[in-house]
Amino acid sequence: MAPSPRTAVADQAAPAPVRPSRTPSVRATGRRPRGRWLSPAAVNAALALAVLYTLFPLVWLVTAATKDAGGLLAGDALSFEGFDLAGNLSRLASEGDGIYFRWYANSLLYAGVGAALCALICVAAGYAFDKYRFPGKEKLFGLVLLGVLVPTTALALPLYLLAGRTGVVNTYWSVLVPVLVNPFGVYLARVFSAGYIPDEALEAARIDGAGELRVFWSIGLRMVAPGLVTVFLFQFTAIWNNFFLPLVMLSDQRLFPVSLGLYAWSGNAHGEPSFYPLVVTGSLLAVLPLIIAFVTLQRHWKVGLAAGSVK
């Protein structure tokens, strides 16, 4: 039986069947196809390279601290052959009647006391900028932000002239007093105060009869503890690694921090290679306080992040 004209026209107008694509569509999967450079393997490989690049100097420092002068000058610092860490530590303790550990104690004094007082001052200033209203507050805070743009090396000469006028050059105060102020710490403390201290809690304390100092010490300071720890760690690291200010202020080796003392020894190493193991071993010991500080205080950051997520 021959097909009717109407059926023939319908067969000619019908489109050819389309085969379904084997690749799932973006609408079906809810995500776009990723290139090979964004695959998990490529990302993990890039992260592994970054970790190796970051840890390589520390690994070199650990292995080089076990070498004597001959092993370091031979260029075989990445192996533990000829392990002599105990001997290097003994020579480090006996060199100059134990002057290295005097430098170490000086650095702990400068960094520990200076960072603690600086963090407290910065948090108090940031709290005042955030919670109080007074004439010219924003203009004064703008001056604080301008202080962030000034490099610390540019302030070394003015600070030296001021220290000379007050008679504190070549003393502990010449290094300790200038590090008590950190404009970036004030800015950071104001940000933490705005995010962690609700105004309602302060008003409730004032209604109960607490004074402003009691409100700050008992409520504000405890709520902003993650910010206090953050400013402390930033300033502790900056003071511990500080080199130029002690170089300008100090001439007595008994007052040197460990950074300046190791610099003096590295200058002697050009004429006397026996100082090379002392400098490397001393540099390894100088890293330990920073690692300990970050490991012991990181839990405060975790507490702050958890509190922020709850809010």
From TrEMBL:
Q: What family, per the record?
A: Belongs to the binding-protein-dependent transport system permease family.
CDD domains referenced in this protein's UniProt entry, alphabetically: TM_PBP2
Name the Gene3D superfamilies for this protein. MetI-like
Is the keyword Cell membrane assigned to this protein?
Answer: yes
Matching InterPro entries: MetI-like, MetI-like_sf
Q: Which GO terms of the cellular component aspect does the record hold?
A: plasma membrane
Annotated segments matching region Disordered: 1-32
Show the taxonomic lineage: Bacteria, Bacillati, Actinomycetota, Actinomycetes, Kitasatosporales
Give the matching Pfam families: BPD_transp_1
- Single GO BP term: transmembrane transport
Q: Which UniProt keywords apply?
A: Cell membrane, Membrane, Transmembrane, Transmembrane helix, Transport
User: Where is the chain membrane-spanning?
Assistant: 41-62, 108-129, 141-163, 175-198, 219-240, 275-297
Q: Does the keyword Transmembrane apply?
A: yes
* Cell compartments where the protein resides: Cell membrane
Tell me the ranges covered by the ABC transmembrane type-1 domain, including all copies. 104-297
Membrane topology according to the record: Multi-pass membrane protein
> What's the protein name?
Sugar ABC transporter permease
